[in-house]
Amino acid sequence: PLSVKGDILFLLDSSGSVSYYEFSKVKEFMWDLVRPFTFGPNDVQTSIIHISTTPTMEFPFDRYLSRGTVQQAIRDTRQLMGDTNTGKALSFAKEKLFSNDAGARPDVPKVLVWVTDGFSSDDISEPMQLLKDMGVTVFIVSTGRGNYLELSAAASQPPEKHLHFVDVDDLPIITKELRDAMLANRLRVVDITSSSFRLTWPQLLSQETGYYTLQYAPTDDLAAKRTTQVSGAHTSLTLSNLAPETTYEVALVPESNIHYFPPQTIRVTTLAEEISPAQILISDSRPHSFQVSWAPTPDSVTSYQVLYGPLRGNSAQLLEVDGTHNSTVVENLAPNTTYLVTVTAIYSSGMEKSLSAKACTQEGERAPQVAPREGQIGC
């Protein structure tokens, strides 16, 4: 499931100009579009507004907060018929997208998806511009001919990412592309390590139109909030000198002097500190065995690998040791021989860190004084 935060509103043409077949196909498309999302008060919420003679909200944003209930609510949506008063529906949508009574949340990304057959009885340009000025990202899917110039002006910019013309039977073709575009308008995190991560976001501002305020703090110590300002020309920033295995709350606030953009938030957990086994200790050395111990490393170590072989030789053997242990006995060794032992910590992140040491086996009891075999070094 995709865990992101936002209110998604579908503007659904429910008028008499849409056939029953087209209406059912659009409902399938709506569910396919949101199906991968996680729903909930801290994740995605969704709602539907009908375009008809009088606009109607099918259900508030906060009523259905699981995938099963959202799917059923979309299936149960019935066509209202009536006129195609899209402008009225857009003005209604502007109220509901920012209304606590409708279950909408303040300061979360707002997305409007308008599926249309391309015809509207009233003017859409002014109410649509008001929505965009309030920070709503507008996607338009036209299943009819539609007026390209009118619809490209209505959609968020650039139109090639926010406006689709497609036959109703081909809606599945654009589903993933549209969903990816919805996600691309968000704050994202990449390159997470134990002490840093990089934030990326879409280009909302420019050097001339504003700047970003970035705030971040550990979830369990929000009073330790740090704030930094970032040029409007930038679309990424690396935060460093962070604590390992710590969850941070991050907020990006676009400070625009032209449009309002809602803050974008994300929660990020740094990886465990990946350190090498601090010290290898060789003990209880015997002619055919010795014990290898190492300082315990963090809980994020899933296992250790102990590789050993004669210092001068081309053979080596591998022992796997559970991450909860920090010692093992190496057996079946040759007496009076120097071995190279390498302990590797395998972390849950996939990282590996190693440390090596030399170890000598004891002389065998009453062992005849013969030259060491090839590959062995006498201790």
Q: What is the secondary structure topology, with strand pairs?
A:
Blueprint: E1 6-13, H1 20-34, E2 44-51, E3 56-59, H2 67-75, H3 86-97, E4 110-116, H4 125-133, E5 136-142, H5 148-154, H6 159-162, E6 163-165, H7 171-184, E7 188-190, E8 197-200, E9 210-218, E10 226-231, E11 236-239, E12 247-256, E13 264-269, E14 280-283, E15 290-294, E16 301-310, E17 317-322, E18 327-330, E19 338-347, E20 352-360
Parallel strand pairs: 1-2, 1-4, 4-5, 5-6
Antiparallel strand pairs: 2-3, 7-8, 8-11, 9-10, 9-12, 12-13, 14-15, 15-18, 16-17, 16-19, 19-20
Helix pairs in contact: 1-2, 1-7, 3-4
Quick structural overview:
Its main location: secreted. The chain contains 7 helices and 20 strands.
Highest CATH level, the class of the largest domain: Alpha Beta
Which percent band covers the strand fraction? 25-35%
Order of strands in the sheet with the most strands? 3-2-1-4-5-6
- Level-2 CATH architecture of the largest domain: 3-Layer(aba) Sandwich
Q: What is the overall shape?
A: elongated
CATH topology of the largest domain: Rossmann fold
What is the total number of structural domains? 3
What's the story with the biggest beta sheet?
Answer: 6 strands, mixed
Task: Give the class from helix and strand content and strand pairing.
Answer: alpha+beta
Order of helices and strands: EHEEHHEHEHHEHEEEEEEEEEEEEEE
Number of helices: 7
Mean pLDDT: 86
Q: Helix proportion of residues, in percent?
A: 10-25%
**Counted beta strands:** 20
Fourth CATH level, the homologous superfamily of the largest domain: von Willebrand factor, type A domain
Subcellular location: Secreted, Extracellular space, Extracellular matrix, Basement membrane
Keywords: Basement membrane, Disulfide bond, Extracellular matrix, Glycoprotein, Phosphoprotein, Repeat, Secreted, Signal
Function: Promotes matrix assembly. Involved in the organization of skeletal muscles and in the formation of neuromuscular junctions.
Subunit structure: Homodimer or homomultimer; disulfide-linked. Interacts with HSPG2.
